[in-house]
Amino acid sequence: MTGFIQLSTGDFYEGILLTNSLEQDLAGEIKCYTQMTGYENVLTNPDYENKIVVFTYPLIGNVGIRAQTFESGKPTIAGAVVYEAADQVFHYQGTCTLQQYLDKWNIPLLSHIDTRAVVKKIREEQNVSCVLTTSMNEKNRRSIAYA
């Protein structure tokens, strides 16, 4: 399914919604994660609670989800944006894919987004919020309410 991320700057990016959990627009504060490893910690870190996290490393989830790396018992993020999410688990302790994990918790995962362009825009503008949506047309492009 096609999904979009629209920034409060007016910029928007089209991608693919990998989870089935975006029944209505999701508005929130956007946070960037630029490291190569540690995505499992971010998903469950209370510092990212209710944030939409943009991961800049091109492939996220290649080792799968390993519960022993969690910061808390369940995910705290509101949504995740990636360029590509691995569709297989490549670590012997991995129990499921990133997509399966987020789908289980009804957290939207938007992929095939130019995450580095999103981060550049966020760094230029500073305090940026965003909306994840499945319908982008001229009417709601102008009227989306940001958190």
From TrEMBL:
InterPro entries membership: CarbamoylP_synth_ssu_N, CarbP_synth_ssu_N_sf
Top-level taxon: Bacteria
Domain (Carbamoyl-phosphate synthase small subunit N-terminal) spans: 1-133
SMART domains, alphabetized: CPSase_sm_chain
What protein name is recorded for this chain? Carbamoyl-phosphate synthase small subunit N-terminal domain-containing protein
